[in-house]
């Protein structure tokens, strides 16, 4: 609930509240006669133009276009995706040098994400993994060099996963408990190895095919049209067109009422070896 620029009450219902609605419903209501004393004070405060700098106290906020070290993108700890409408943004195949541009966008928007990194890229850019972890993102495992795991032996699968977890940990991020098998390809053998290593398999249910159509507007349209409550969204931070899409995607998902969280915050009680495509 908020006040609009005319001082009317702006009341939003999440999709989970009005379950038949295809998108969140919002109403502007004339507030006159409805407000308590406190409500009138809040209404007045909302209508006063404010200098944002005057509202900050203590250490102050970073200047526009800059990111305070360790400022972080973590969502509040108390987000409960059983109650609010959530989705998780996930990025695979990086990091590349330009992944920092996406980290800047996520920091500016205050959105945490989950990055499934390839070990050979993690070895080249350990400082980017350290930044991801410091800013509240989750670093997951996308194997050492992106093979189709279903074609490998148990010992080869284990080596792909463990070598990558070693590199992630060496970079300063927590040892991952999330595995995204390349191409989403898994079977009983991959699941058994993942279970042995204490890792859950994380696939997706929203795929904008950003590798195919290298067009920010198309990627944005597909994510905004297909993300539902509980969705895991697949993208690849190695593409400029994808990195360039995410400011608009995040704004659009926020307008639709989504709270954007990491995969562990989206999915309660992750089971090693299990494969997940979405919440619920
Ligand atoms: Ni991949």
Topology:
Layout lengths: L1 E2 L5 E5 L11 E5 L7 H11 L4 H4 L30 E7 L6 H11 L4 E4 L1 H6 L1 H9 L3 E4 L12 H17 L7 E2 L8 H9 L3 E3 L13 H11 L4 E6 L3 H4 L2 H10 L3 E3 L1 H4 L8 E2 L4
Parallel strand pairs: 4-5, 4-9, 4-10, 5-6, 7-8, 8-11
Antiparallel strand pairs: 1-2, 2-3
Helix pairs in contact: 3-10, 6-7, 8-10
Bound molecules: nickel (II) ion.
Nickel (II) ion binds next to loops.
Please tell me about this protein's structure:
With 280 residues, the protein is an alpha/beta fold. The longest helix is centred in the middle third of the chain and has 17 residues, at 154-170. A hairpin with a 5-residue loop joins β1 (2-3) and β2 (9-13). It is globular and about 65 Å long. The model is unreliable at 3-8, 10-19, 21-25 and 45-71 (pLDDT under 50). Strands 4, 5, 6, 9 and 10 form a 5-stranded parallel beta sheet that branches. It is 34% helix and 15% strand. The protein binds nickel (II) ion (NI). Residues 92-93, 142, 146, 182 line the site of nickel (II) ion (NI).
- Secondary structure: helix percent: 25-40%
Bound molecules: nickel (II) ion
Question: Which outline best applies?
Answer: globular
Strand % is 15-25%
Number of strands: 11
Task: Explain briefly what this protein structure is.
With 280 residues, this protein is α/β, with parallel strands linked by helices. Helices cover 34% and strands 15% of the residues. The chain has helices at residues 37-47, 52-55, 99-109, 119-124, 126-134, 154-170, 188-196, 216-226, 240-243, 246-255, 263-266, and strands at residues 2-3, 9-13, 25-29, 86-92, 114-117, 138-141, 178-179, 200-202, 231-236, 259-261, 275-276.
